[in-house]
Write a structure and sequence with these properties.
Helix content is 55%, strand content 4%. The chain is mostly helical. The chain has a three-stranded antiparallel sheet. Helix 1 (2-14) crosses helix 4 (57-74). It starts with a helix and ends in a 6-residue tail after the last helix.
Length: 265
């Protein structure tokens, strides 16, 4: 059982799957192998009963994908069980208005922490990209940053706010270009959970009732740009989406907001 699980993890790693994907698929497969070892059932019945133990559509989808990959990559044969394609609910991404973000930022006293959260909103980058951002990836003349080895193993260029330039320059002045922009007192890059904790405390202090995480700032960045008339294909490139279809979800967000606006007539 352990050998099969380890072989599965190796196959995913060799094919360049993201660390979080490997973690979640690996956990589901481990559970599947333990589940089936205790059940004397046919292959199809095993998979069917295993998927039924998952409460949400998203959990079942992850488990199903892990099983299909396990059969194809490790067992080298097609999965004996067929299922209709999961149809996840098209939940619109949540976002904060610019005024909300300003209030949240005002609750962060540490200048470096405030700059980190400002970069998330002003550049549309992920936490994982923020904490791995190196000094050499900042281009002050063009007010842009290069996101290296981003999701899908593709570099991209995005922007940062001119209002943040002086604070960024002061933070990186005299330091080696290879260093991470945001370093702890121990000269190590910040952990993602630390950045999220900073944001969570600020949101709580702000009194804003909307559910928000650091990733909400990425949604807010995209929604704000779209609302300001920026072409959706340009937003796609800034966010690093492979397909413009992924970015199109923000059109629905702005349309939903527009429906709440009353005519001034």
């Amino acid at each position: 059982m352990t050998d099969l699980h380890d072989a599965f993890i190796r196959e995913l790693a060799n094919r360049g799957y993201a660390a979080n994907t490997i973690k979640h698929y690996g956990a589901r497969l481990k559970y599947f192998l333990e589940f089936t070892s205790r059940k004397f059932l046919g292959p199809e019945e095993r998979i069917s009963r295993f998927l039924a133990t998952h409460g949400s559509t998203e959990q079942r989808r992850i488990a199903w994908n892990a099983i299909k990959l396990f059969y194809g990559l490790v067992l080298k044969k097609p999965c004996p069980y067929a299922i209709e394609k999961f149809r996840p609910r098209h939940r619109l991404p949540s976002f904060l208005e610019r005024s909300d973000v300003i209030v949240v930022l005002s609750k962060i006293r540490n200048p470096k922490h405030r700059l980190m959260i400002s970069m998330l909103y002003g550049s549309g980058i992920r936490i994982s990209e923020l904490v791995r951002l190196r000094i050499r990836d900042i281009d002050f003349p063009s007010l842009s940053v290069r996101i290296v080895n981003a999701k899908q193993n593709k570099d991209r260029i995005t922007v940062f706010a001119e209002s943040l330039a002086e604070a960024l320059k002061a933070l990186v002045q005299g330091r080696d270009g290879k260093e991470f922009v945001f370093m702890t007192m121990n000269h190590e890059p910040y952990a993602r959970r630390t950045v999220q904790a900073v944001f969570d405390r600020a949101v709580k202090a702000s009194g804003i009732q909307k559910h928000a995480s650091c990733h909400t700032l990425r949604h807010s960045f995209a929604t704000s740009l779209l609302g300001n008339g920026i072409d959706i294909r340009a937003i796609k490139d800034l966010l690093g989406h492979q397909s413009v279809k992924t970015t199109m979800i923000y059109l629905h967000v702005t349309e939903k907001s527009a429906r709440k606006i009353k005519s001034p007539l």
